[in-house]
Amino acid sequence: MRVTGQRASRLVIIGGSDAGTSAALRAREVDPSVEVTVIVSDSFPNYSICGLPFYLSGEVPDWHGLAYRTAEEITGVGVRLRLEHTAKGSTR
Ligand SMILES: Cc1cc2nc3c(=O)[nH]c(=O)nc-3n(C[C@H](O)[C@H](O)[C@H](O)COP(=O)(O)OP(=O)(O)OC[C@H]3O[C@@H](n4cnc5c(N)ncnc54)[C@H](O)[C@@H]3O)c2cc1C
């Protein structure tokens, strides 16, 4: 959502897996002044869901290794993360 005038632009993204994290990082890249908040119901963002079979098979011994990026890497570029938060409704 872009708010014109004196207020900064704000973007709220629901979900912080591949799509949500990519959108958040790209938004910051395109416009570093935009305030990006990602709401994630999980405890950890940006995990490779596709990698779960490799963890279950033991090929990836530590599930932390399934993370594409850590929370610190994401917040490090100015994205606000709200982990363990579930969006229950929305307003336009
Ligand atoms: C076992 C497995 C193997 C796969 N292998 C492949 C593969 O090899 N190649 C391939 O292309 N695809 C594969 N996929 C599919 C791929 O994982 C998905 O297409 C991809 O994860 C979709 O990414 P996404 O970010 O759109 O959604 P998701 O990964 O589903 O992430 C959605 C995120 O939003 C959060 N969320 C949802 N609702 C809310 C809410 N109301 N409030 C807050 N947070 C919310 C969830 O907690 C989650 O973090 C596989 C999937 C599985 C399960």
Overview of this protein structure:
The protein is α/β, with parallel strands linked by helices and 92 residues long. 26% of the residues lie in helices and 14% in strands. Strand 1 (10-14), helix 1 and strand 2 (35-39) form a beta-alpha-beta unit. It is elongated. The mean pLDDT is 89. The protein binds flavin-adenine dinucleotide.
Question: Layout of SSEs?
Answer:
Blueprint: E1 10-14, H1 18-30, E2 35-39, H2 52-57, H3 71-75, E3 80-82
Parallel strand pairs: 1-2, 2-3
Bound molecules: flavin-adenine dinucleotide.
Tell me the number of helical segments per DSSP (H or I, 4 or more residues long).
Answer: 3
Query: How helical, in percent, are the residues?
Result: 25-40%
Gross geometry: elongated
CATH architecture: 3-Layer(bba) Sandwich
The CATH homologous superfamily is termed FAD/NAD(P)-binding domain
Percent in strands: 5-15%
